[in-house]
């Protein structure tokens, strides 16, 4: 059954402390998000299937293990999800990349799709949807809905930090989706910001306000 996985690896937690720090520069913040994306990719690909292959070392022939032709796609939610993309691609360079663009209505807080582009064979791929933050859950729910509409079946969601409220919303809307989190935070405040959080991930990644 799909589960919520909170990653407690020491390297992830160490880097998250600097990501949260308001004094961390844009450059360093961007580098750290990239690095944590790579570390999370290592963890979430743990269950990929392997097959036996014959290789010849400088010494002798042997049977080794390789990925069994698994097709993978990484789908960042624009724009903040782009911060995790390159780190994941370094570990999974053969992955295809799709994108979902959403904006949040300032009144209703609902996520509205404005852009979607995916690999043509998305229905055959394991999909990793990435976004640094899972707050209300609205963006993640809509992004995954857009991906499912195109035929995708096996989907996981990865984020740096999440509020319990957002996790519950995502679980209820998409109970078949595994959720991977670097840190599960305390709550949402009355402005739907994650507490203690890290601020606005997109602004901190791109130096905007």
Structural description of this entry:
This protein has about 210 residues and is α/β, with parallel strands linked by helices. It is built from 6 helices and 13 strands. The strands form 3 sheets. Strands 1, 4, 5, 6, 7, 8, 9, 10 and 11 form a 9-stranded mixed sheet that branches. The protein is globular. It starts with a strand and ends with a helix.
Question: In a nutshell, what does this entry contain?
Answer:
With 209 residues, the chain is of the alpha/beta class. It has 6 helices and 13 strands.
Q: For the record, give the distance between the C-alpha atoms at the N and C termini, rounded to a whole number.
A: 40 Å
How many structural domains?
Answer: 1
Mean pLDDT: 93
What is the highest CATH level, the class? Answer: Alpha Beta
- From the alpha-carbon coordinates, what is the Rg to the nearest angstrom? 18 Å
Which sequence of SSEs, written as H and E, runs from N to C?
EHHEEEHEEEEEHEHEEEH
Features:
209 residues, alpha/beta, Rossmann fold, nine-stranded mixed sheet, two-stranded antiparallel ribbon, globular, GTP binding, Uracil phosphoribosyltransferase, transferase, Upp_B, magnesium ion binding
Task: Outline the secondary-structure elements.
Elements: E1 4-6, H1 10-20, H2 26-44, E2 50-56, E3 61-67, E4 72-78, H3 82-91, E5 96-97, E6 99-104, E7 111-117, E8 126-130, E9 133-134, H4 138-149, E10 154-162, H5 164-173, E11 178-184, E12 187-188, E13 194-195, H6 201-206
Parallel strand pairs: 1-11, 4-5, 4-6, 4-8, 8-10, 9-10, 10-11
Antiparallel strand pairs: 2-3, 6-7, 12-13
Helix pairs in contact: 1-2, 2-3
